[in-house]
Amino acid sequence: MNRTSKRLAAIAPSATLAVDAKAKAMKAEGEDVIGFGAGEPDFPTPQHIVDAAIQACSDPKNHRYSPAGGLPELKMAIVEKTSRDSGFECEPSQVLVTQGGKHAVFTAFAALCDPGDEVICPAPYWTTYPESIALAGGVPVVIDTDAASGFQVTVEQLDAAYTDRTKVLLFVSPDNPSGSVYSPEAVKAIGEWALAKGVWVITDEIYEHLTYGDHKFVSMPTVVPGLADQCLIVNGVAKTYAMTGWRVGWMIGPQDVVKASANFQSHVTSNVSNVSQRAALAAVSGPLDAVYEMRKAFARRAKTMYSMLNAIEGITCLEPQGAFYAYPDLTGLLNRPIAGSVATNTLELADLVLDKAKVAFVPGEAFGLAGYGRFSFALGDDDLANGIQRIASLVAS
Known about the structure:
With 397 residues, the protein is an alpha/beta fold.
């Protein structure tokens, strides 16, 4: 007899966390490992946010339970921040504060999916999406993209994937892991497709502030206003404000769906830590100066990584448009001798590079699109250049 349920036994471990954990374990043993695996900013949380948390610790009202759906002041601040940053107008009753963006994603699928409902999930995708869909009883319907399409799904592909069981389209821009940003025209076309088909959209906007060059974030229900009644927005403070460890996210949607989701959360987690919520309140209602400084650093690193990866024989890479990831095509490194070994897929290549060059990246298999690899540039400039140079030297050896 299995000791765990089939539902939990079927969950695949997070490949991104596994790579990061292996790299950290090697570092702990004294090895000089450079990790491109983790999806979190390397900057500290801005001081005014930390100060708000310190103050919150001393206030007894934060030592008690608070509303399961979020502090009223934070929900109001999220409403104002959303209007400011994306132009989408909503009410506090349409906001649910969650235990990080990841929990917002799971709650969104739990709110919409009945057993057998199909969710269109373009690949490459963040590793958590298919697992959250399956846990909610949904069926992931994967659509492959590639570098030639800029890792962007088309309306024609959506039409081909659509069935009478299609309930939800997952949409992510800026995208993890590809770094792709859809144009306003493409966002509108996809939103109009979903509206016409009666398909819900879950749009993950966690990287909204991290776009580079001429690429700009747009929120789908802003450019397709009619979609608002069949759209859930998930977001959080983790990436924008370097607050991955604070665990505050949110979901925005129609009132009936948010009410049901808040009831669900009241039984699963109750309220998010009040101290973290107070810190998030300072983040979303405060200035964006620190955010812009971080974005400038990420933009610089994106160009460095793009040029260095493309200089390696066998690697081709699109220039990152958003988030803090490059997603190079590594097929030119497969089935050829590298430091006395041969990798036949990117899983094997990632192990080879970690063992031989002490550099960690996440293979494309983790994101549903083999042959590629995700390289985070959320690390120091020197480590970034050193890590890519190590790969270049390994390939040339």
